[in-house]
Amino acid sequence: MNGKAGVWIDHRRSVTVMLTASGEHITRIDSNVEKHLERGGDSPLKGRYEAHQVPADDARQRVLTGELNNYYDAVIASVRDAEHILLFGPGEAKGELHKRFVRAKLGPRVVAVETEDKMTEAQIAAKVRAHFEFGAAGRMA
């Protein structure tokens, strides 16, 4: 294990900043998950039974959960070597990701989970550097 990492995350994308002895590395991962699934099927409905024409809500929820789990696994893989991890973001995704870290037995590496609004990659990198006191020159202060 080496380095420290910060992950800004929401359900659509994540930005990971790895701070190592060799410098700062930024990775962006897009989720390709559509958060608000719409019901499929013909519109207006043709026939008497809607259940036969559109997928059930629980089936759509299972698909969404599976896609999010794949996304969270990709984010975890991008910071697996970090010894300390900062999670932050605007919504529920940071808490969901933290639970995935705990299940993967990486929970103790998460040093903080914070709420932050939308940020640019430069703002994300600056926050991670400031949190871990990593100098702009790419060295621990």
Please write out the topology.
Layout: E1 4-9, E2 13-20, E3 23-30, H1 57-79, E4 84-89, H2 93-103, E5 110-115, H3 121-131
Parallel strand pairs: 1-4, 4-5
Antiparallel strand pairs: 1-2, 2-3
Overall 3D geometry? globular
- CATH level 1 name: Alpha Beta
What is the CATH homologous superfamily assignment?
Answer: eRF1 domain 2
**DSSP summary, beta strand count:** 5
Low-confidence stretches: 137-141
- Assigned CATH architecture: 2-Layer Sandwich
Strand composition percent: 15-25%
What does this structure look like?
The protein has 3 helices and 5 strands. The protein has helices at 57-79, 93-103, 121-131; strands at residues 4-9, 13-20, 23-30, 84-89, 110-115. Helix 1 crosses helix 2 (93-103).
Short key terms for the protein model shown above:
single chain; alpha/beta; Nucleotidyltransferase, domain 5; globular; disordered C terminus
Describe the structure in brief.
32% of the residues lie in helices and 24% in strands. It is α/β, with parallel strands linked by helices and 141 residues long.
